[in-house]
Amino acid sequence: SSSGSTSGARTVTLVTHDSFAVSKPVLRAFTTATGWKVRILKSGDAGAALNQVILTKAAPLGDVMFGVDNTFLTRALDEDVFASFSARNLKEIPREFRLDSTRRATPIDFGDVCVNADRKWFADRRLPIPKTLRELTGSQYRDLLVVENPATSSTGLAFVAATVAEFDDGWLDYWDRLRANGVKVVDGWEEAYNGEFSGAAGSTGTRPLVVSYASSPPAEVFFADPQPETAPTEALDATCFRQVEFAGVLRGAAHPDGARALIDFMLSRRFQQDLPLTMFVVPVMPNTPLPPVFRKFATVPADPLTLTPERIGRDRRDWISQWTEHVLR
Amino acid sequence: MTARVPIWWGRALLLGVPLAFVTVFFIWPVGAILGRGFVVRGGVDLSPVGEVLTNAALRRVVGFTIWQAALSTVATLAVALPATAVLSRYRFRGRALLVAVLTMPFVLPTVVVATAFRALGVHGSIGAIVIAHTFFNVAVVVRIVGAAWRGLDSREEDAARVLGAGPVRTFVSVTLPALRPALAAAASIVFLFCFTSFGVILVLGGPRFATLETEIYRQTAQLLDLRTAAALSVVQLGAVVIALGVAGVMTGRNRGSHRLPTPGKIPARIGSRARVAAALAPAILLVATPLLSLVRSSLAHGGYGYSHLGTTPFGAAGSPADALATSLRIAAVATILAVGLGLALATAVTRPGRRNRVVRLAQSVVVLPLGVSAVTVGFGFLIVFDAPPLNLRTSWWIIPIAHALVALPFVVRGTVPILRAIDPRQREAAAILGARPWQVWREIDLRLIGRATAVAAGFAFAISLGEFGATLFIVRPETTTAPVAIFRFLSRPGATNVDQAMALSVILMGITGVVALIGERSANTRSASTARAG
Amino acid sequence: MLRVTALSVRYGETLALDRVDLTVGRGEIVAVLGASGSGKTTLLRAIAGLEHPTTGAITWDGESVAHTPPHRRGFGLMFQDHALFSHLDVRGNVEFGLRMRGRRPRPDNPRPDISARTRDVLDLVRLAGFERRRVDQLSGGEQQRVALARTLAPSPRLLMLDEPLASVDREQREHLASELHRIIRVAAMPTLLVTHDLDEAFTLADVVVVLDRGRVERCGPARTVWSEPGSITVARFLGVATELILPVADRTVRTPWGPLPAPAAADRAWVGFRPGDLRVDRRGAVTATVREVWFRRDHFLLNVDTEFGPMTATGPRSFDPGATVGIHADVEAAVVLDA
Amino acid sequence: MLRVTALSVRYGETLALDRVDLTVGRGEIVAVLGASGSGKTTLLRAIAGLEHPTTGAITWDGESVAHTPPHRRGFGLMFQDHALFSHLDVRGNVEFGLRMRGRRPRPDNPRPDISARTRDVLDLVRLAGFERRRVDQLSGGEQQRVALARTLAPSPRLLMLDEPLASVDREQREHLASELHRIIRVAAMPTLLVTHDLDEAFTLADVVVVLDRGRVERCGPARTVWSEPGSITVARFLGVATELILPVADRTVRTPWGPLPAPAAADRAWVGFRPGDLRVDRRGAVTATVREVWFRRDHFLLNVDTEFGPMTATGPRSFDPGATVGIHADVEAAVVLDA
Ligand SMILES: Nc1ncnc2c1ncn2[C@@H]1O[C@H](COP(=O)(O)OP(=O)(O)OP(=O)(O)O)[C@@H](O)[C@H]1O
Ligand SMILES: Nc1ncnc2c1ncn2[C@@H]1O[C@H](COP(=O)(O)OP(=O)(O)OP(=O)(O)O)[C@@H](O)[C@H]1O
Ligand SMILES: [Mg+2]
Ligand SMILES: [Mg+2]
């Protein structure tokens, strides 16, 4: 009932987060191929969208959910909002992304949260761009870094996870040192990147280091008019934490067929190819051709920092409250 | 002493429809979500409230929330009242334009304003929070209090002056008591806005500052800890109810001295020009500076944002122009809903007759949506409107309905003080002359609250254009509103996205200004032509 | 015909009207008199339907109007404080009642020509040319005349006027009083007139009702009430300023100016004189000492002391305080009551 | 002492006051008379500082008050429409002026004179016991008395009363008028009194000013103004109802009742009589036909037609319309002016 199909046309409803995007021709191709129209319900950021799905599991908002990442995966699985489904191309996805052994959540894309640096800023001052997390506590990088609050931002949470993955039990000491070195915390990515970071186009920000994405440098190029030869910013490989995004068929969906068709489509080349420039993430399907800006300007770290979804699910709350105590109070 | 309203059901209808609206679209969803938090295995468990109140950190949050809201309210009144005084008493060129400019902040998304304030170096402190709240809320005071002030009967002030009261004492002892209901209405709205403010606290205050609203958001949207969220919501509601109670006491009893607003009786003469300017300066400075800085940054890159209004960025659901069109459509519907329901309720509440508890309660209930977190309402919608006939979760209508809920208090609180102040003899005279109750309403009440209604409608429109918090949860790609579009542009890196966001913000603000200007002008000419032609 | 029976109205503790009975026939003018706060305004408001009587009945042509709301009673009421519509100009005020009636033109009462009627009543109150004026920019008397015009315009079936001429000057007042009289007689409109001006009351009214603290103290034809006030309160109210307690013998009151029939078989009577009925006269039977003299345009008013007590008399010229004068009385005009 | 020189006030197009000159001495009562809309209220408001004069000067004891704001002038003004403070009770209204004068309460005896003074003035207007009443729950006359009390309470150095007694009954009015007179004389308070009641004006006032369309039409001692109105307008305003144009010969006006000295060397004169000066009398020199008769309590007012034109006379009893009567005049009382 909730998908509200109109007069014979079959419509599958996709519940997702605000950042979801797909280009129109791609969506039309899906409809042409399968006969399913897609209705998209964007419902806040990734966390809020998932929580809405959980709240409404008795009468699901839609048929498919896209946008659960590895930091939220266990919550989705524990709440059992997805029905099991093995996508047609599932086997071709590298094992590192297939984090759900119960085969309910299907990986679609991934991205890396990394510290970004404003190249010009460092060049102007003849200061080397830092390479590792540890270097960020060095006194020459005092008052240069801006990060997001993990309590309100998924980017911020990913970065905290990065520090846990890197330093294990010592992560809070690391943060104490970051704090002593003048780290600035803001609430969301928008303020951090557009407001505080000096490298963003047109920004009045003053800090040359920001927690953002590995795909931010190509985006800077892509959304400039005209596009420059070199990226004004760069992502620091060794600071990257990997986020994998999943989709799943909602349990109790009105149109499970459509839902399955849509997830299959998400793993098709057509859709996967579209991902980099619409959502600035990297497709999970190997051998998907990347657009030139990505090939030229994006880093895909070979050995990113990771944590198991179970670990994140278990400890997230504690991390946030401890982090808040150490960094904000 | 009062005219009987013979058709009791007419009044019941006036009262019942708005109340039903608020009950269905507010009380029910909020009740449902609170129920999820409190109902444990069929029993009600209120212990989380106790836990919240005994938790030192959360107590600090509650204290800070109230404190910053109170401080912001006082600051807003301090900046806005002098401006209101001269805007409602003096006649000078550019008056209407000024009122329009002061109204503009109302629609701006917090993210956008934050950029402007940050560029001006205002951020990261309680001061920044207060300044931003004042920036947003000056219009509330200027317009609600201004509408009442203009209709004030000046004869009592003359009497006070002749009896030896100087201008200040005249204001304190005669004008202020007469304005008290409107002041209380405006102050309580400002307080609630600041109390539940979200973006300003997060973006301008910074992560150090947590309020009930941000906590509820975090507990609900991020952690899905409905138990704690419900407890916090109850605490929030409790504080809101207390604040409304205080406002109710401040309102005092009726006075029958409201007349047709006669805008700007006193032409600003040479001597008083300086005084007018001095009174307006703080408000103008506070509001215009960030606005101008926004306009300036929107012109970056040769006005890319303006020349690409019709361009749908790669991967986005629509162009800025599409979002604007959607916003205007939604705002129109929300305004009609809010004004219609609000006037019905205001009329029912102020009809002469025995004032019973239902009536008094009704007035307070409509204000509650201002005092409850958008995320609570948004999540509540999801769990109650999931079955026909109210399967509204994914309907277009849910957005104007949500906006109307937020705008309703403006209409009710903006018109009730004025309706109350209408001399009952005016209605009696009309009845004696053969006017039926609805004719009395049309010929007397409506004529006298014309300006207040225009102001309230303007607010409703602006609120709908600018509403963001609740919209984000219920918006669909085909119903993307302008603030949501701005937010989405800004959540992607790259210059063209920022340019389009800024341009859209400035256009949104311009539309609001124009709407306010038209309202102001038409209210003026209406009263002027009434004076001339009847 | 209006009939009011045992009408009581209570404001909290105050009993503003206490079992008032009253009848107003077709074309009859009833003047309602009474001290400040005696309930005159309350009476008119209750008849109009603006106050809820605690007891009593109001009938029009024999039918109760208890359940008829004010706007259906078809009664006209001119408010003491005018209650003009501040948002309408003079014309808007005057034509208001016509517009309200005009919505329902009945075959027997065709939609009147609103503007012609408005012009007529404005002419009547001498405010032609004021149509476009804002009512809060009118002088007090002009406002009062607008209020009068507004009440008259729809030709109500009962006319109630609460001090209609209190703020207009003597010349206008006389003009308006005689115009009102003409209109009321021509339209045979039953009329209740509240006034503090005894001249006005006794010139215009057929029947005079005197209220005292909410009760009808006296009710009767104007001339009878004037000559026989019936009670000391009413007598004082109607201008009796000199009060004497005089002995009675053989059912006759012995006054210094001659005998008068006594009202009851008591041995003392109360005898009252209006100032005009006591004159300073050389031949006056009572010797008096002048205490105070007031100029009254065509005569002087003297407060004097006599062996019978203080008296208030009129004289053709002024006297110095302390002078000795004679007082003559028009005994016929005396008001005699039980002491 | 108050002196007003060439004072003009303009409301848009209307010239409400036109070069008014006026002086009020210590303890002097000046009555301001004039038709509705003639500018009386405007005059008081301008003196109080509530209207900005377009031209002219207002001085107090020789010093201009042009730059003194209303609250520093120390003048008291009772408003025609009362303008009571609706949010204050009766006591709050009355003591307002006292509080504004800034009498600080002393610890031992908080605000002694304020409450005593409030009680006194409320006693004076007979409203003791009304202290706690809401002003919108008072009758019209009660409100007017509160307004009067409020004006008197702070003992202003100039008292201005705009129709202070229009809504109170005759008895109260006489009481209040004589009390006012006493207070004004005792405090030697210069007073401007606007009234429509000629009795009141001529009883209380030393000087009478008659305004006509914003201009001073007549100004002088009360008795002189009464007997010599000076112009036809003022004569009419002061009650002249019968106007005759009569021939003049040898500087003598020939009236049917005897000769009168003519005012100027014209061949015709204007002769006016007040109703009281023309009496129906068998021996009357003029024969008249009765047109209308009005009951006037102690006499009758007759409109009659004669060979000289219509006349208004008084008679001791009623006559039927059409009856023939004689009219006698008190020629001494006639007002004679240029035709
Ligand atoms: N709304 C009210 N609430 C309480 N008491 C009232 C109210 N209105 C009038 N009263 C009281 O009722 C009594 C009668 O009032 P009413 O207005 O009828 O007097 P009135 O005869 O018209 O007097 P006036 O000549 O002064 O106008 C007065 O004592 C008055 O104080
Ligand atoms: N605020 C105003 N705006 C325009 N005209 C006004 C205003 N106030 C008074 N007038 C006009 O000025 C003239 C004088 O008014 P004012 O009130 O002084 O008369 P008044 O002598 O007091 O009359 P009344 O005896 O009727 O009270 C009137 O013609 C009136 O219509
Ligand atoms: Mg009355
Ligand atoms: Mg006046």
Key features of this structure:
heterotetramer, B: 534 residues, mainly alpha, two-stranded antiparallel ribbon, two-stranded parallel ribbon, 4 strands, C: alpha+beta, 6-stranded mixed beta sheet, 20 strands, binds adenosine-5'-triphosphate, binds magnesium ion
Summary?
The complex is a heterotetramer, with one copy of chain A (329 residues), one copy of chain B (534 residues) and two copies of chain C (339 residues). Chain B has 534 residues and is an all-alpha fold. Helix content of chain B is 76%, strand content 1%.
If you had to describe this structure to a student in words, what would you say it looks like?
The complex is a heterotetramer, with one copy of chain A (329 residues), one copy of chain B (534 residues) and two copies of chain C (339 residues). By secondary structure, chain A is an alpha/beta fold. Chain A has helices spanning 24-34, 46-55, 73-78, 119-125, 154-167, 171-180, 189-196, 216-222, 256-266, 269-279, 292-297, 309-328; strands spanning 10-16, 36-42, 64-69, 82-83, 106-118, 145-148, 184-186, 209-213, 233-235, 241-250, 282-283. In chain A, strands 1, 2, 3, 4, 5, 6, 7, 8, 9, 10 and 11 form an eleven-stranded mixed β-sheet that branches. In chain A, helix 5 (154-167) packs across helix 6 (171-180) and helix 6 (171-180) packs parallel to helix 12 (309-328). In chain B, a hairpin with a 2-residue loop joins strand 1 (39-40) and strand 2. The radius of gyration of chain B is 23 Å and the shape is globular. Chain C has 339 residues and is of the alpha+beta class. Chain C is built from nine helices and 20 strands. Chain C starts with a strand and ends with a strand. The model of chain C has no long low-confidence stretch (mean pLDDT 90). Chains in contact: A-B, B-C, B-D, C-D. Chains A and B meet through strand 2, helix 2, helix 7, helix 8 and helix 10 of A and helix 5, helix 10, helix 13, helix 17 and helix 23 of B. One adenosine-5'-triphosphate (ATP) sits between chains D (11-12, 14, 16, 34, 36-42, 80) and C (137-142, 167).
What's the topology here?
The complex is a heterotetramer, with one copy of chain A (329 residues), one copy of chain B (534 residues) and two copies of chain C (339 residues).
Chain A: E1 10-16, H1 24-34, E2 36-42, H2 46-55, E3 64-69, H3 73-78, E4 82-83, E5 106-118, H4 119-125, E6 145-148, H5 154-167, H6 171-180, E7 184-186, H7 189-196, E8 209-213, H8 216-222, E9 233-235, E10 241-250, H9 256-266, H10 269-279, E11 282-283, H11 292-297, H12 309-328
Parallel strand pairs in A: 1-2, 1-3, 6-7, 6-8
Antiparallel strand pairs in A: 3-10, 4-10, 5-8, 5-9, 5-10, 5-11
Helix pairs in contact in A: 5-6, 6-12
Chain B: H1 8-38, E1 39-40, E2 43-44, H2 47-54, H3 56-89, E3 90-91, H4 95-103, H5 110-119, H6 126-150, H7 155-162, H8 167-195, H9 199-205, H10 212-222, H11 226-251, E4 266-267, H12 270-298, H13 300-307, H14 320-350, H15 357-365, H16 368-371, H17 374-384, H18 398-421, H19 424-432, H20 437-448, H21 450-466, H22 471-474, H23 482-490, H24 495-533
Parallel strand pairs in B: 3-4
Antiparallel strand pairs in B: 1-2
Helix pairs in contact in B: 1-11, 1-14, 1-17, 2-11, 3-6, 3-8, 3-12, 4-24, 5-9, 5-12, 6-8, 6-9, 6-18, 6-21, 7-8, 8-11, 8-18, 10-11, 10-17, 12-24, 13-24, 14-15, 14-18, 14-21, 14-23, 18-21, 19-20, 20-21, 21-24, 23-24
Chain C: E1 2-11, E2 14-24, E3 29-34, H1 40-48, E4 55-60, E5 63-64, H2 70-73, E6 75-78, H3 90-102, H4 114-124, H5 140-152, E7 158-162, H6 170-187, E8 191-194, H7 198-204, E9 207-212, E10 215-221, H8 222-227, H9 232-237, E11 242-249, E12 252-255, E13 258-261, E14 268-273, E15 278-280, E16 286-295, E17 300-306, E18 309-315, E19 324-329, E20 335-338
Parallel strand pairs in C: 3-8, 3-9, 6-7, 7-8
Antiparallel strand pairs in C: 1-2, 1-4, 4-5, 9-10, 11-12, 11-14, 12-13, 14-20, 15-19, 16-17, 16-19, 17-18
Bound molecules: adenosine-5'-triphosphate (2 copies) and magnesium ion (2 copies).
